[in-house]
Design a protein that fits this description.
The complex is a heterodimer of chains A (461) and B (60). By secondary structure, chain A is an alpha/beta fold. Chain A has helices at residues 10-19, 24-42, 50-62, 107-114, 157-164, 181-187, 221-231, 275-287, 298-324, 330-340, 344-364, 397-400, 406-409, 438-451; strands at 45-48, 75-79, 118-123, 143-144, 147-151, 170-175, 190-193, 213-218, 262-265, 291-293, 370-374, 387-390, 393-396, 415-420, 427-433. In chain A, the strands form three sheets. Chain A has an eleven-stranded mixed β-sheet with strand order 1-3-2-6-8-7-14-15-11-9-10, sandwiched between helices. A two-stranded antiparallel ribbon of chain A has the order 4-5. In chain A, helix 9 runs antiparallel to helix 11. The relative contact order of chain A is 0.14. Chain B is an all-alpha fold and 60 residues long. Chain B is built from two helices and no strands. Chain B has helices at residues 6-16, 26-44. Chain B is elongated. Classes of the chains: A alpha/beta (461), B mainly alpha (60).
Chain lengths: 461, 60
């Protein structure tokens, strides 16, 4: 290995490859070496696509246009619910291992590779994405790079661990109720959950069609923006993908905070928050001179998201529950069976509430541009921990790590999760914007990064 | 609204939906259904006008 790329950003790697200072193949070999060294402890990868990665790296090196590729030679990996040609899309399950290999890559992988990025593998996740812990009974838990005894958060646990642990600079994951933002918070990295419908989900394994989003993880805001920019654009293969052309964000990251009206969510979003979460939130809110606002009926929004998730998820898996119930993770199975039994009248009520709530929250954006909120109520719990105490009430960890993320993804708002490097464990905040204004959330995140208020801490590995 | 007794409902729903349900799974299914119904009723109890539309709107 000629150079240590383990803490390089994708942007730095692309510049080095584009200028000829290094090669995509050298970067790929370095990434494969680090994966081989660190994955046995972090358990982030379920498949390493080494030969494919080397072949792709060689095509990048041979490209006469490599200096123009925004992600030239940048290694990345994907949650194992993305289709990767030639391997089954397991989605964290045992059942899907028997499915035929994917015939074609997920569209977002194709778009990343078109920009010069190099796929190096698929990542551990909670079974069928119904999880906030990053634990998996079939593949073992993904482990937090800052403390191997602690959770990564889920369900994109491997995505959080691999980026936070320096195995790759960029990973892709999915977020239905918080599965990008929760691992970002617990692993101390940046994550972007775009507006619902912004990024195509074509050829990824679904969970809750009306709530599923895909998005990137990274250790810098610029890497989030670079990867997000190349993945945008309409796609007829995803019925939920909006017919919007690409709206670049990377060139405008440095526009600063002038003119931006910044709020911080109070009420529900402080209730149950640990001292660490409030320290992180209050520090950033003060730095941005944010004023406190109340997001109305957030507890009901979280409840409605919970109901829609469990019932839509049950509908997706009904046949598998009938035929292969014993092959599920028991915790997932029992939640899905219960979901199948929720009366449809209550689900319709949740969908009616969803529209009302959306209108109330969108009205808030008449007076502010972004809203700050905690990403998780606590720093990473211990692997295997079943319950924690929030606001004096003992609650299951698995269902409650996402109490602050669920009311936001429920109405598809774009969010950048930013890490506050508390010791010994980091914790994340959400920067929430109005639909289609990812640019504003990224701009605020970048300003905070430049101020030193948020950063991805480097673990001792 | 208080949750109705769930044991009979779970047994009937499992049969109606053709879902296998081993006895050992029932306590966990019941605990999950109890939470789901409590949260669903929290939402359903919120007063909204009859004209309020659900979030998904079908377009022909």
């Amino acid at each position: 290995m000629s150079h240590d790329f383990t803490w390089s950003t994708g942007s730095e790697i692309a510049q080095a490859v584009g200028s000829g200072a290094t090669t995509a193949l050298a970067v790929t070999e370095a990434a494969l070496s680090v994966i081989a060294a660190r994955n046995p402890t972090l358990n982030a990868f379920t498949t390493v696509t080494a030969e494919r990665a080397r072949a792709k790296a060689k095509t990048v090196d041979a490209s006469p246009d490599k200096a123009k590729l925004p992600l030239a030679g940048v290694p990345f990996a994907v949650k194992n619910l993305f289709d990767v040609e030639g391997i089954p899309t397991v989605a964290g399950s045992k059942i899907n291992r028997a499915y035929p290999p994917a015939k074609r890559d997920a569209e977002l992988i194709a778009r990343m590779e078109k920009a010069g990025a190099v796929l190096v593998g698929a990542l551990n996740m909670g079974e069928y994405a119904y999880d906030f812990t990053g634990e998996n009974v079939h593949d073992g838990p993904s482990r937090n790079p800052h403390d191997l005894t602690r959770m990564t958060g889920g369900s994109s646990g491997g995505s959080g661990g691999t980026v936070g642990g320096g195995l790759v600079p960029i990973a892709l994951g999915s977020d239905t109720n918080g599965s990008i933002r929760v691992p970002s918070s617990l692993c101390g990295i940046f994550g972007l959950k775009p507006t619902y419908g912004r990024l195509t989900r074509a050829r990824s394994f679904p969970f809750v069609a009306s709530l599923d989003h895909l998005g990137p993880f990274a250790r810098s805001v610029r890497d989030l923006a670079l990867s997000y920019d190349v993945m945008q654009g309409p796609d007829a293969d995803d019925a939920g993908c909006a017919d919007r052309q690409q709206e670049s964000t990377a060139p405008f990251l440095g526009s600063g905070l002038d003119g931006l009206r910044i709020a911080v969510a109070g009420g529900y979003f402080r209730k149950g928050a640990s001292p660490e979460a409030l320290t992180a939130l209050d520090g950033v809110a003060k730095a941005l001179n944010a004023r406190e606002i109340e997001i109305p009926e957030a507890a009901r929004a979280r409840a409605a998201a919970y109901v829609i998730t469990t019932t839509e998820g049950a509908a997706l898996h009904l046949d598998r529950l009938r035929k292969q119930a014993a092959d599920f993770d028991p915790a997932v199975r029992d939640r899905l069976i219960a979901g199948a039994m929720v009366p449809s009248t209550l689900v319709v009520k949740a969908q009616i509430f969803r529209r009302w709530y959306r209108e109330q929250v969108l009205a808030l954006f008449k007076d502010c541009d972004v809203i700050l909120a905690p990403a998780t109520p606590v720093t990473a719990p211990t692997i295997g921990q079943q319950t924690f105490t929030l606001d004096g009430v003992e609650l299951p960890v698995r269902a409650n790590l996402g109490i602050y993320t669920q009311p936001i993804s429920f109405i598809g708002l774009p969010v950048v999760a930013v890490p506050v490097a508390l010791k010994p464990m980091p914790i994340g905040l959400q920067i929430i914007a109005a639909p289609w204004r990812e640019d504003l959330a990224l701009r605020v995140a970048y300003a905070l990064e430049q101020m030193g208020a948020v950063s991805a801490p480097r673990p001792q590995l | 609204m208080a949750n109705p007794p769930l044991d009979d409902y779970i047994a009937a729903a499992a049969a109606a939906l053709d879902l296998p349900l081993e006895a050992a799974w029932v306590p966990s299914v019941k605990a999950n259904l109890d939470v789901s119904l409590r949260l669903a009723n929290l939402v359903a109890d919120f007063p909204l006008p009859d004209a309020a539309e659900p979030a998904p709107v079908f377009k022909a």
